[in-house]
Write a structure and sequence with these properties.
The chain is α/β, with parallel strands linked by helices. It has 2 domains: 32-117, Leucine Dehydrogenase, chain A, domain 1 (Rossmann fold); 142-277, Rossmann fold (3-Layer(aba) Sandwich), CATH 3.40.50. 42% of the residues lie in helices and 16% in strands. It has 11 helices and 11 strands. The chain has helices at 9-31, 46-61, 77-88, 108-114, 126-133, 142-155, 173-182, 197-202, 241-245, 257-260, 275-295, and strands at 5-6, 36-42, 65-71, 95-98, 162-166, 186-190, 206-209, 227-230, 234-237, 249-252, 266-267. The chain has a 6-stranded parallel sheet. The protein has a 3-stranded parallel sheet with strand order 3-2-4, with helices on both faces. Strands 9-10 form a two-stranded antiparallel ribbon. The relative contact order is 0.16. Bound molecules: ligand LMY7XDAE and magnesium ion (MG).
Length: 297
């Protein structure tokens, strides 16, 4: 039995960031403008703090300006809306990112809709979701955009492939399905009420798992030779007994990776697969937004 190719998202994203750094240099030379990304964090969620710090470091590393905004966990929705309004009108800001999840007292859709769609580098605004749905994408959500790059790298053309997306979130599942459709796949979206999931999985040439349940997708569900993209980032107790007793955790995906790698032709690991692509695609979107915003002037 041949083992699957492990799709190295760390290496791919590092190469992409090098290319973005070149794009930023060219952009600066041509337009005399430095792209700026504003990153907003509300509260102290430990994982969010890490992601936000990485985003800021990588923004600077590719030669763009990073603008950091931290609001207290008790900040009001209006304070956040006021900040977004200021950033929407700031010509030095080409991309605005509000880290999710937000504290419960803040209505996430209201916040996302307040961001200028042309600066919405997360691609979550309804205008950008609509553009993607009608096949004229502008700023595309970062995680699905990264998944597409990894898939195209593995398979070349995706035309005519049967693709199964497990999960229908607005951040991953839905935009992922739209991107696969745009790439001429036959797309099925499964969710918690789907009855014949295993059967659907066995027909899929491409499986994208974004359910948030550790090791949910089993090797026995996969069609031999399928390409498996694991979007899950699930924190579970460490394997080592001493580490577990000390309360240590590790990250696993939504796919039973070890067994699935014996059936798939290519598979993303967790960590080191899709995750690193998210931030690289955010930087890519920021350069894109800066290009769009400065092209008319
Ligand atoms: N406004 C947004 N909020 C959130 C997004 C998003 O795209 N926009 N996505 C996630 C979190 N996220 C970025 O924000 C993100 C998640 C994971 C990774 C990553 O590199 N993961 C590593 C493992 C990291 C670890 O050890 O914890 C990997 O998979 O290798 C990057 C970014 C929710 N919020
Ligand atoms: Mg909320």
């Amino acid at each position: 039995m041949t083992e699957a190719i492990i799709i190295d998202g760390k290496e791919f994203s590092s190469n992409l960031r090098n290319k973005i750094a070149e794009d930023v240099k060219t952009f600066k030379k041509e337009r005399n403008v430095v792209p700026g990304l504003a990153v907003v964090l509300v509260g102290e969620d430990p994982a969010s703090r890490i992601y936000v710090r990485k985003k800021e470091e990588m923004t600077t590393a590719v030669g763009m300006n990073s603008l950091s905004y931290r609001l207290d966990a008790n900040a009001s929705q209006q304070e956040l809306l006021d900040l977004i309004e200021t950033l929407n009108h700031d010509p030095a800001v080409h991309g605005i990112l509000v880290q999710l999840p937000l504290p419960k007292h803040i209505d996430t859709p209201t916040i996302l809709e307040a961001i200028d769609p042309d600066k919405d580098v997360d691609g979550f605004h309804v205008v950008n979701a609509g553009r993607l749905a009608i096949g004229t994408p502008s700023l595309v959500p970062c995680t699905p955009a990264g998944c597409m790059m990894l898939l195209e790298h593995s398979l070349g053309s995706l035309k005519g492939k049967n693709a199964l997306v497990i999960g229908r979130s607005t951040i991953v599942g839905r935009p992922m399905a739209q991107l696969l459709l745009a790439a001429d796949c036959t797309v099925t979206v499964a969710h918690r009420h789907t009855k014949n999931l295993e059967e659907l999985c066995r027909q899929a040439d491409i499986v994208v798992a974004a359910v948030g349940i550790p090791h949910f997708v089993k090797a026995s569900w996969l069609k031999p030779g399928a390409v498996v993209i694991d979007v899950g980032i699930n924190r579970v107790p460490a394997e080592d007994e001493a580490a577990k007793a000390a309360g240590k955790t590790r990250i696993v995906g939504d796919v039973d990776f070890v067994e699935a790698a014996k059936v798939a032709s290519a598979i993303t690991p967790v960590p080191g697969g899709v995750g690193p692509m998210t931030i690289a695609c955010l930087l890519n979107n920021t350069v894109q937004a800066a290009r769009n915003l400065t092209s008319a002037s």
